[in-house]
Amino acid sequence: MAITKKWWHDKVAYQIYPKSFRDTDGDGVGDLRGITQKLDYLKDLGIDILWICPVYPSPFVDQGYDISDYYDIDPAFGTMADLEELLAEAKKRDMYILMDLVINHCSDQHPWFRKALQDPFGKYGDYFYFRRGENGLPPSNTRSYFGGSTWEKVPGYEDLYYFHAYAAAQPDLNWENPEVLDELYTMVNWWLEKGVAGFRIDAIINIQKDISFPSYPPDGEDGMATVVRMVESVEGVNEKLQALKKNTFDRYDALTVGEVFNMRKDALDAFVGENGHFSTMFDFSVNCLSDGPGGWYRNREITFRDFRETLFHSQLECQGIGFLANFLENHDEPRGSSRYLPPCVRNEQGMKMLATVSILLRGIPFLFQGQEIGMTNCPMVSVEEYNDINTKAEYALCRQAGLSDREALNVCQRFSRDNGRTPMQWDASPNAGFTTGTPWLKVNPNYVDINVAEQEGREDSILNYYRRLIALRKSPEYREVFTYGEFVPLFREAENILAYRRVLEGRETVVIANFGPEEAVLPADTFRDHRLLLTNAPAETASGAITLKSAQVIVLGR
C-alpha cells in the first residue's frame, strides 16, 4: 500500500517531563526556560520534535494531567511568554513542539467543574457525568485506573455521584454534549494558531462511555470490575475522533500521537491508516508484556523471546497500514534498560544495543529524557519518597496482599512511574545539575557516575553512541530506507538474536543484536556485499560467518 509522505515521517522525537528536566530559578521544579536553554543540546543529539508533558495550571494531583485552565501556563513552569520564547527558539532550529492534550477529563478545580458542583443539574452539570446511586451505593461497580470506585459523592447531595475514570480529582468530560465539544475544538485550534506543531493525546479512547453506566461481573475481591470493561464494550469512539480531527488537526496539518489502549484488533486502520484518526500512536505491545492479573506485585518478567516476537508482530501488523510511534521509556513507565534488557546485558553496551534495535524500526522513534545517557530506575528507601499517586496506591495493594514493606518497595522500584520522573542528570554537581534548590523529587544517587557532562567528554559513551545512531537513521544515503523501508524479521529461530532487515527499492539495511550471555556465530553469506555502518563493539567477521559478542549489535547496509 502506498503511503502519502508527511513532514514528520523521517523525524526523531524526544519527550520532556518539564518538572524534572532543567530548573533555572532554583525552586526545585523544572521550567520552560530550562527547556529553551537545552535546545542546542537536543539539536546536537539529532532531535527534531519535542513532546512536552503538561505545563498548564494544575493542582498536580496527577502531575499536571489534572488541568484547571487549558489556556495558560502554571507559574511553576513559567509564563506564556516563556512558552512563546520556546516556540520561537525551536523554530529557529527547525524543531517542532508538541503539547500534551488532556481532554478526556479535567481537574476538579477547573471553573467548569466548580460551576457544575454548584448546580449539578444545570448547564455545567451536563459538562460531566452526574448520576444517582441506589441504597447508598454508587451508580455502578466500575473500578478506576488508579483503584477504588469510578464514582465520587457530590458534597451536599444524597446519593449523587460524578464519574472519574482516573483520580477523583479528574472528573471525566461529557463528550455527548455539543457545547463541551465546541469548547474543546476552540481550545485545540487556539494552541495550533499559537504555533504548536501538534499534540500527544492522552487517554483518548476513554472519551466514549456507555452512558447507562452498567455494572459488570466483579474481577477482584473488592467486588468491582475494571473500567476497561466499559471502554472495550462500547461503540461510537471512531465518530468522535473523526469529528475532532476534522474540526481541528486537519486544518493545520498537525502531527497527532495517540495514547491508545484497549483498541480493538481490527481498528488499526481506523486509528493510524491513510485517513485515520491520528498521524501515529504509541506502540504499547511490548510495554504491556509485564502486565499481570491485578496489581504490580502480580506483574510478569518480560522474557527475551516474548519481547522479540511481540516487537516483530507489531511491526508486521502495522507496516501495510500506517506508522507507529516506537518508544522504550516514558513518564508513565520504568526505565527501559531496567526492564527490557536481560540481566546479563544490563550494561552500557546493552543499552546501546537496545537503542539501536528500537530507533531503526519502522515508525517514528520517541526518546525520553535521560534515555540517551542510560538513566536507570531509582531506589527509594521508603514509600514517602515517592510522589506518584498511582505508586502509592500500588504500594498499599502490595501491603494488603501480605507483602512486607521491603517487598512492596521492591515492586514499586521495578514499576513505579516515578522511575522515569526523577530529575535529569546533567553533571556530577549537587542535585545532578538539575537545580540549585531542593529538587521536587529525589535525584537518582547514581548521577555522580551517569550524567551528560561525563558522557559528553567520552567518545564511547551512550550519549555519543545515540548521536551516531540518530545521524545514521537520518543520513542522506539511508534516510528513506529507515523511514519507508519494509520490515523483514531475520534469524527468528536463533535463541538470543534479534535481527531484522529494512528494504526499499533495492537498498537495504540489516540490524543484528545479541541479547544473550554468550558469543553468537551467524551465517553471513547473504551479507557479503554489505558494509558495516555502525556497531557498539569491534566487529569480527570470518569467511561465511558473523561473530557477535554478548550485548553487541551491528548495522549493515548496501
Description:
- The protein has 558 residues and is an alpha/beta fold.
- It is built from 15 helices and 21 strands.
- Helix 10 packs parallel to helix 14 and helix 11 packs antiparallel against helix 12.
- It is globular and about 80 Å long.
- It starts with 12 loop residues before the first strand and ends with a strand.
Summarize the structure.
This protein has 558 residues and is an alpha/beta fold. The chain has helices at residues 32-37, 39-45, 80-92, 111-118, 178-194, 228-233, 237-247, 268-272, 304-318, 348-359, 389-400, 405-415, 452-456, 462-473, 479-484, and strands at residues 13-16, 49-52, 96-101, 130-132, 142-143, 151-153, 160-163, 198-201, 225-226, 255-258, 280-282, 324-327, 364-368, 486-490, 497-504, 507-514, 520-523, 531-535, 540-542, 545-548, 553-557. The strands form 5 sheets. The chain has an 8-stranded parallel beta barrel with strand order 1-2-3-8-10-11-12-13. A 5-stranded antiparallel β-sheet has the order 14-15-16-21-18.
Give structural attributes.
558 residues, Immunoglobulin-like, Oligo-1,6-glucosidase, domain 2, alpha/beta, single chain, TIM Barrel, 16% strand
Topology (elements, then pairings):
Elements: E1 13-16, H1 32-37, H2 39-45, E2 49-52, H3 80-92, E3 96-101, H4 111-118, E4 130-132, E5 142-143, E6 151-153, E7 160-163, H5 178-194, E8 198-201, E9 225-226, H6 228-233, H7 237-247, E10 255-258, H8 268-272, E11 280-282, H9 304-318, E12 324-327, H10 348-359, E13 364-368, H11 389-400, H12 405-415, H13 452-456, H14 462-473, H15 479-484, E14 486-490, E15 497-504, E16 507-514, E17 520-523, E18 531-535, E19 540-542, E20 545-548, E21 553-557
Parallel strand pairs: 1-2, 1-13, 2-3, 3-8, 5-9, 8-10, 10-11, 11-12, 12-13
Antiparallel strand pairs: 4-7, 6-7, 14-15, 15-16, 16-21, 17-20, 18-21, 19-20
Helix pairs in contact: 10-14, 11-12
